[in-house]
Protein backbone atom coordinates (compact mmCIF):
# COMPACT_ATOMS: atom_id res chain seq x y z
CA UNK A 1 0.00 0.00 0.00
CA UNK A 2 2.91 2.34 0.72
CA UNK A 3 4.14 1.85 -2.85
CA UNK A 4 0.69 2.63 -4.28
CA UNK A 5 0.27 5.75 -2.11
CA UNK A 6 3.70 6.98 -3.20
CA UNK A 7 2.83 6.29 -6.85
CA UNK A 8 -0.41 8.27 -6.64
CA UNK A 9 1.30 11.15 -4.80
CA UNK A 10 3.97 11.15 -7.50
CA UNK A 11 1.34 11.49 -10.21
CA UNK A 12 -0.34 14.28 -8.22
CA UNK A 13 2.84 16.33 -7.72
CA UNK A 14 3.94 15.57 -11.26
CA UNK A 15 0.58 16.75 -12.54
CA UNK A 16 1.11 20.17 -10.93
CA UNK A 17 4.59 20.39 -12.49
CA UNK A 18 3.09 19.36 -15.81
CA UNK A 19 0.41 22.05 -15.64
CA UNK A 20 3.08 24.69 -15.04
CA UNK A 21 5.32 23.16 -17.72
CA UNK A 22 2.51 23.46 -20.27
CA UNK A 23 2.78 27.24 -19.94
CA UNK A 24 6.52 27.14 -20.61
CA UNK A 25 6.24 24.73 -23.52
CA UNK A 26 3.35 26.54 -25.25
CA UNK A 27 5.07 29.92 -25.09
CA UNK A 28 8.37 28.47 -26.31
CA UNK A 29 6.72 26.40 -29.03
CA UNK A 30 4.84 29.37 -30.47
CA UNK A 31 6.76 32.53 -29.50
CA UNK A 32 10.21 30.82 -29.33
CA UNK A 33 11.02 32.44 -26.00
CA UNK A 34 11.41 31.29 -22.40
CA UNK A 35 9.11 33.17 -20.03
CA UNK A 36 11.05 32.89 -16.77
CA UNK A 37 8.42 35.08 -15.08
CA UNK A 38 5.95 32.19 -15.45
CA UNK A 39 6.68 30.82 -11.98
CA UNK A 40 5.83 34.16 -10.41
CA UNK A 41 2.40 34.16 -12.03
CA UNK A 42 1.72 31.15 -9.77
CA UNK A 43 2.46 33.40 -6.80
CA UNK A 44 0.15 36.12 -8.14
CA UNK A 45 -2.62 33.54 -8.55
CA UNK A 46 -2.19 32.39 -4.95
CA UNK A 47 -2.33 35.98 -3.68
CA UNK A 48 -5.53 36.67 -5.64
CA UNK A 49 -7.08 33.56 -4.09
CA UNK A 50 -6.19 34.74 -0.57
CA UNK A 51 -7.54 38.21 -1.38
CA UNK A 52 -10.93 36.98 -2.63
CA UNK A 53 -11.26 33.97 -0.32
CA UNK A 54 -13.33 35.82 2.35
CA UNK A 55 -15.95 36.54 -0.34
CA UNK A 56 -16.28 33.03 -1.80
CA UNK A 57 -13.73 30.28 -2.57
CA UNK A 58 -15.13 29.56 -6.04
CA UNK A 59 -15.12 33.27 -6.87
CA UNK A 60 -11.51 33.41 -5.62
CA UNK A 61 -10.41 30.62 -7.97
CA UNK A 62 -12.21 32.13 -10.97
CA UNK A 63 -10.74 35.57 -10.17
CA UNK A 64 -7.24 34.06 -9.98
CA UNK A 65 -7.59 32.37 -13.38
CA UNK A 66 -9.03 35.48 -15.07
CA UNK A 67 -6.60 37.99 -13.50
CA UNK A 68 -3.57 35.78 -14.19
CA UNK A 69 -4.65 35.40 -17.83
CA UNK A 70 -4.93 39.20 -18.09
CA UNK A 71 -1.55 39.56 -16.38
CA UNK A 72 0.01 37.18 -18.91
CA UNK A 73 -1.44 39.21 -21.78
CA UNK A 74 -0.17 42.47 -20.22
CA UNK A 75 3.34 41.09 -19.69
CA UNK A 76 3.51 39.91 -23.30
CA UNK A 77 2.22 43.22 -24.67
CA UNK A 78 4.36 45.51 -22.50
CA UNK A 79 7.59 43.57 -21.95
CA UNK A 80 7.96 40.95 -24.70
CA UNK A 81 6.21 42.26 -27.80
CA UNK A 82 8.64 45.20 -28.27
CA UNK A 83 11.47 42.64 -28.19
CA UNK A 84 9.93 40.35 -30.82
CA UNK A 85 12.92 40.76 -33.16
CA UNK A 86 15.57 41.23 -30.47
CA UNK A 87 18.30 38.79 -29.46
CA UNK A 88 17.41 35.85 -27.18
CA UNK A 89 19.68 37.31 -24.49
CA UNK A 90 17.68 40.56 -24.37
CA UNK A 91 14.43 38.61 -24.02
CA UNK A 92 15.94 36.41 -21.29
CA UNK A 93 17.14 39.41 -19.27
CA UNK A 94 13.71 41.05 -19.65
CA UNK A 95 11.97 37.88 -18.43
CA UNK A 96 14.20 37.75 -15.36
CA UNK A 97 13.51 41.45 -14.75
CA UNK A 98 9.73 40.86 -14.94
CA UNK A 99 10.13 37.98 -12.47
CA UNK A 100 11.90 40.17 -9.92
CA UNK A 101 9.40 42.98 -10.50
CA UNK A 102 6.44 40.71 -9.68
CA UNK A 103 8.15 39.36 -6.57
CA UNK A 104 9.06 42.84 -5.36
CA UNK A 105 5.55 44.21 -5.91
CA UNK A 106 4.07 41.22 -4.07
CA UNK A 107 6.45 41.77 -1.16
CA UNK A 108 5.47 45.46 -0.96
CA UNK A 109 1.73 44.71 -1.13
CA UNK A 110 1.48 41.44 0.85
CA UNK A 111 4.57 41.68 3.05
CA UNK A 112 7.54 39.31 3.28
CA UNK A 113 6.05 36.81 5.75
CA UNK A 114 4.37 33.58 4.52
CA UNK A 115 0.58 33.48 4.94
CA UNK A 116 -1.55 30.47 5.78
CA UNK A 117 -4.45 29.66 3.51
CA UNK A 118 -7.71 27.84 4.27
CA UNK A 119 -8.91 27.25 0.71
CA UNK A 120 -9.59 23.55 1.30
CA UNK A 121 -11.51 24.28 4.51
CA UNK A 122 -13.62 26.91 2.73
CA UNK A 123 -14.41 24.62 -0.20
CA UNK A 124 -15.13 21.41 1.71
CA UNK A 125 -16.25 22.24 5.28
CA UNK A 126 -18.72 19.35 5.53
CA UNK A 127 -16.22 16.84 4.16
CA UNK A 128 -13.71 17.81 6.85
CA UNK A 129 -16.32 17.16 9.53
CA UNK A 130 -16.38 13.48 8.60
CA UNK A 131 -12.86 13.01 7.20
CA UNK A 132 -10.11 14.27 9.47
CA UNK A 133 -7.29 15.96 7.58
CA UNK A 134 -9.19 15.64 4.30
CA UNK A 135 -8.09 12.00 3.96
CA UNK A 136 -10.21 9.22 2.48
CA UNK A 137 -9.45 5.77 3.93
CA UNK A 138 -10.22 2.66 1.87
CA UNK A 139 -9.17 -0.35 3.93
CA UNK A 140 -5.52 0.31 4.72
CA UNK A 141 -5.16 2.71 1.81
CA UNK A 142 -5.16 6.48 2.48
CA UNK A 143 -5.56 9.19 -0.12
CA UNK A 144 -6.14 12.93 0.22
CA UNK A 145 -9.16 14.49 -1.44
CA UNK A 146 -6.82 17.21 -2.72
CA UNK A 147 -4.81 14.51 -4.52
CA UNK A 148 -7.93 13.16 -6.24
CA UNK A 149 -8.92 16.69 -7.29
CA UNK A 150 -5.42 17.34 -8.64
CA UNK A 151 -5.36 14.13 -10.70
CA UNK A 152 -8.84 14.81 -12.10
CA UNK A 153 -8.06 18.45 -12.88
CA UNK A 154 -4.79 17.62 -14.64
CA UNK A 155 -6.46 14.91 -16.72
CA UNK A 156 -9.28 17.27 -17.79
CA UNK A 157 -6.82 20.08 -18.65
CA UNK A 158 -4.60 17.74 -20.67
CA UNK A 159 -7.51 16.31 -22.68
CA UNK A 160 -9.11 19.73 -23.13
CA UNK A 161 -5.89 21.38 -24.27
CA UNK A 162 -5.13 18.56 -26.72
CA UNK A 163 -8.63 18.80 -28.22
CA UNK A 164 -8.36 22.60 -28.35
CA UNK A 165 -5.09 22.45 -30.31
CA UNK A 166 -6.23 19.71 -32.70
CA UNK A 167 -9.92 20.52 -33.24
CA UNK A 168 -10.31 24.32 -33.09
CA UNK A 169 -9.36 26.96 -35.63
CA UNK A 170 -7.32 28.86 -33.02
CA UNK A 171 -5.50 25.68 -32.01
CA UNK A 172 -4.59 24.87 -35.60
CA UNK A 173 -3.41 28.46 -36.02
CA UNK A 174 -1.15 27.93 -32.99
CA UNK A 175 0.36 24.86 -34.63
CA UNK A 176 0.89 26.81 -37.85
CA UNK A 177 2.63 29.69 -36.02
CA UNK A 178 4.86 27.24 -34.13
CA UNK A 179 5.93 25.65 -37.42
CA UNK A 180 6.52 28.82 -39.47
CA UNK A 181 5.44 32.31 -38.38
CA UNK A 182 6.04 33.86 -41.79
CA UNK A 183 4.05 31.26 -43.71
CA UNK A 184 1.23 31.39 -41.14
CA UNK A 185 1.04 35.17 -41.51
CA UNK A 186 0.88 34.86 -45.32
CA UNK A 187 -2.05 32.47 -44.90
CA UNK A 188 -3.98 35.10 -42.93
CA UNK A 189 -3.12 34.07 -39.37
CA UNK A 190 -2.85 36.98 -36.92
CA UNK A 191 0.45 36.01 -35.26
CA UNK A 192 0.22 38.71 -32.57
CA UNK A 193 -3.23 37.51 -31.49
CA UNK A 194 -2.10 33.87 -31.38
CA UNK A 195 0.89 34.73 -29.19
CA UNK A 196 -1.38 36.79 -26.91
CA UNK A 197 -3.83 33.87 -26.58
CA UNK A 198 -0.93 31.53 -25.83
CA UNK A 199 0.26 33.74 -22.96
CA UNK A 200 -3.30 33.96 -21.64
CA UNK A 201 -3.73 30.16 -21.64
CA UNK A 202 -0.30 29.56 -20.07
CA UNK A 203 -0.96 32.11 -17.31
CA UNK A 204 -4.42 30.66 -16.63
CA UNK A 205 -2.81 27.23 -16.23
CA UNK A 206 -0.33 28.76 -13.76
CA UNK A 207 -3.30 30.07 -11.74
CA UNK A 208 -4.84 26.58 -11.74
CA UNK A 209 -1.52 25.18 -10.55
CA UNK A 210 -1.44 27.68 -7.68
CA UNK A 211 -5.00 26.62 -6.77
CA UNK A 212 -3.97 22.96 -6.61
CA UNK A 213 -0.90 23.83 -4.54
CA UNK A 214 -3.05 25.75 -2.05
CA UNK A 215 -5.60 22.94 -1.86
CA UNK A 216 -2.71 20.79 -0.67
CA UNK A 217 -1.96 23.27 2.14
CA UNK A 218 0.80 25.33 0.51
CA UNK A 219 1.47 28.62 2.33
CA UNK A 220 1.48 31.85 0.35
CA UNK A 221 4.95 33.37 -0.01
CA UNK A 222 6.41 35.75 -2.57
CA UNK A 223 8.87 33.09 -3.76
CA UNK A 224 6.40 30.17 -3.73
CA UNK A 225 6.48 29.86 -7.53
CA UNK A 226 10.27 29.98 -7.95
CA UNK A 227 11.24 26.35 -7.27
CA UNK A 228 8.10 24.80 -8.83
CA UNK A 229 8.71 27.04 -11.84
CA UNK A 230 12.29 25.82 -12.21
CA UNK A 231 11.21 22.19 -11.79
CA UNK A 232 8.40 22.67 -14.31
CA UNK A 233 10.86 24.15 -16.81
CA UNK A 234 13.10 21.14 -16.19
CA UNK A 235 10.08 18.89 -16.84
CA UNK A 236 9.34 20.71 -20.10
CA UNK A 237 12.93 20.22 -21.28
CA UNK A 238 12.99 16.55 -20.26
CA UNK A 239 9.73 15.85 -22.09
CA UNK A 240 10.68 17.97 -25.08
CA UNK A 241 10.06 21.69 -24.85
CA UNK A 242 7.44 22.73 -27.37
CA UNK A 243 5.59 19.42 -27.02
CA UNK A 244 2.33 19.35 -24.99
CA UNK A 245 2.49 15.58 -24.31
CA UNK A 246 6.19 16.04 -23.52
CA UNK A 247 5.41 18.62 -20.82
CA UNK A 248 2.94 16.19 -19.24
CA UNK A 249 5.42 13.29 -19.42
CA UNK A 250 8.28 15.36 -17.99
CA UNK A 251 6.13 16.58 -15.09
CA UNK A 252 5.00 13.05 -14.20
CA UNK A 253 8.60 11.79 -14.36
CA UNK A 254 9.78 14.48 -11.94
CA UNK A 255 6.84 13.92 -9.59
CA UNK A 256 7.47 10.18 -9.42
CA UNK A 257 11.21 10.65 -8.94
CA UNK A 258 10.57 13.15 -6.14
CA UNK A 259 8.15 10.90 -4.22
CA UNK A 260 10.09 7.66 -4.63
CA UNK A 261 13.37 9.38 -3.67
CA UNK A 262 11.71 10.55 -0.45
CA UNK A 263 10.31 7.08 0.19
CA UNK A 264 13.78 5.59 -0.24
CA UNK A 265 15.30 8.09 2.21
CA UNK A 266 17.00 10.33 -0.37
CA UNK A 267 14.67 13.29 0.08
CA UNK A 268 17.48 15.80 0.58
CA UNK A 269 19.02 14.76 -2.73
CA UNK A 270 15.81 15.10 -4.74
CA UNK A 271 16.81 18.23 -6.66
CA UNK A 272 20.22 16.76 -7.50
CA UNK A 273 18.59 13.56 -8.78
CA UNK A 274 16.10 15.50 -10.91
CA UNK A 275 18.76 17.63 -12.55
CA UNK A 276 20.92 14.55 -13.09
CA UNK A 277 18.03 13.03 -15.03
CA UNK A 278 17.82 16.25 -17.06
CA UNK A 279 21.52 16.03 -17.95
CA UNK A 280 21.25 12.35 -18.90
CA UNK A 281 18.19 12.95 -21.10
CA UNK A 282 19.88 15.87 -22.87
CA UNK A 283 23.02 13.81 -23.47
CA UNK A 284 21.04 10.93 -24.94
CA UNK A 285 18.37 12.99 -26.75
CA UNK A 286 19.03 16.75 -26.80
CA UNK A 287 15.49 17.54 -27.98
CA UNK A 288 13.92 15.78 -24.99
CA UNK A 289 12.00 12.50 -24.80
CA UNK A 290 9.13 13.54 -27.13
CA UNK A 291 10.79 16.55 -28.71
CA UNK A 292 11.32 16.70 -32.46
CA UNK A 293 14.40 18.04 -34.17
CA UNK A 294 13.55 21.05 -36.30
CA UNK A 295 15.30 21.63 -39.58
CA UNK A 296 16.32 25.22 -40.13
CA UNK A 297 15.56 26.47 -43.65
CA UNK A 298 18.24 28.51 -45.32
Poorly predicted runs of 5 or more residues: none
N-C termini distance: 57 Å
Number of strands: 2
Q: Structural class, please?
A: mainly alpha
Report the radius of gyration as a whole number of Å.
19 Å
Gross geometry: globular
* Estimated helix fraction: over 70%
Strand order of the largest sheet: 1-2
SSE run: HHHHHHEEHHHHHHH
Number of domains: 1
- Fraction in beta strands: under 5%
Mean pLDDT: 88
Contiguous helical run count? 13
Major sheet attributes? 2 strands, antiparallel
Question: What can you tell me about this protein's structure?
Answer:
This protein has 298 residues and is mainly alpha-helical. The protein has one domain (8-228). The chain has 13 helices and two strands; from the N terminus they run H-H-H-H-H-H-E-E-H-H-H-H-H-H-H. The protein has helices at residues 2-31, 38-52, 57-80, 88-110, 119-123, 125-130, 145-167, 169-179, 181-186, 191-215, 226-239, 244-263, 270-284, and strands spanning 135-138, 141-144. A two-stranded antiparallel ribbon has the order 1-2. Strand 1 and strand 2 (141-144) form a beta hairpin. The N and C termini lie far apart (57 Å). 44% of the residues are buried.
Amino acid sequence: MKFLETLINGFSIGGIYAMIALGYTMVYGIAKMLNFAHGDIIMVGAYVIILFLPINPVVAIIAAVVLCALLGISIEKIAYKPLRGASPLAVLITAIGVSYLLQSLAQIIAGPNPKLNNLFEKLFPKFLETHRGGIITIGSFNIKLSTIITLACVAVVMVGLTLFVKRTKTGRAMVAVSEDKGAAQLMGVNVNSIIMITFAIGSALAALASTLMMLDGQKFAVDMGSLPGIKAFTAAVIGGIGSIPGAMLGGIVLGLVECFAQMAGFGEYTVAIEFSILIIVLLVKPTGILGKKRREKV
